[in-house]
Amino acid sequence: MLDLKKYNEEDPLKRLVEKDSGGRELSPMEPPDISNASVQPANFEKYHDCLKQLVHEHQDFNEKLSEFEKAILFFKENGLQKQDKIKDSINNFFAYIDHSILPHNRMEEKTLYHLLNERLKTNEMYSKNGSSNTVVDIMEDDHSKLIQLSALTFNLLGLATRLPDQNSRLIVLDIAIEQSMAMIELLRLHIYREDHIVFDLAHQLLSEDELTQIKQQMIPG
After folding, report:
1. Total of domains in the chain
2. What is the extent of the structural domain holding 94?
3. Structural domain contains residue 36
4. Of 38, 79, 60, whose CA–CA distance to 173 is shortest?
5. Which residue, 66, 75, 73, is CA-closest to 96?
């Protein structure tokens, strides 16, 4: 039987999104302070249409993410009240992850990430801790964490609505809210890093022809 108290303390997915002060350094990908950061990258107007398209898709992601955050904060303040609109917002967000965000991530990995990672390694642009990891490796790791966190959060929120015992329901809801906020933070930071760092590196390191080819590969069908 799941020991919820122990789970909340030792959850490995929770630790995935916490900054590990004793672990590998992620410079230049350390979590930035994005509270007052500009939404649009500094070099956005110079970006190839391929990169601009990805930034525009991220803007839609952020809008959906804000709606989801409001719904989660409502549950945090009010508990699992019978608010169909709030529940619909949460269900819609997880459907949006499946139908939009995850396909977007897979497309990035197959097109832009693949070529950019090769170019970064050719130029020996690795993390500053002596490892062979590039910023692309870190972004791909974020994609995996998002899949794990979204599945965990969705299941916990569903479980919280079905448990008959009030105390157990509140404990599971608290864990679900905590994991939801971790997922929100992960996704926001990921989008910021891509827009302002990864895409800027692509702008510098990839040619016009290469970015044009990537854009063609991004077209469905």
Report:
1. 1
2. 46-218
3. no
4. 79
5. 66
- Measuring CA to CA, how many Å separate 149 from each of 81, 91, 125, 179, 180? 24, 15, 29, 7, 8
In this structure, is residue 72 part of a structural domain? yes
Taking the CB of residue 58, how many other CB atoms lie within 10 A of it?
Answer: 21
Q: From 40, 42, 21, 22, select the one nearest 31 (Cα to Cα).
A: 21
Residue 101 counted as domain residue: yes
Task: Give the per-residue pLDDT at 82.
Answer: 67
Q: What is the pLDDT of residues 141-158, one digit of tens each?
A: 999 999 999 999 999 999
Cα-based distances in Å from 97 to 12, 46, 75, 114: 22, 29, 20, 22
In whole angstroms, give the CA distance from residue 186 to residue 138: 12
Where does residue 164 rank: exposed (0-12), middle (13-18), buried (19+ CB within 10 A)?
Answer: exposed
The owner of tokens 């992601």 is: 61
**Residue 102, domain member (yes or no):** yes
CATH of the domain at 178: 1.20.120.520
Q: 134: Cβ–Cβ under 8 A, 6 or more apart, which residues?
A: 117, 120, 121, 125, 126, 127
Q: What pTM does this model have?
A: 0.80
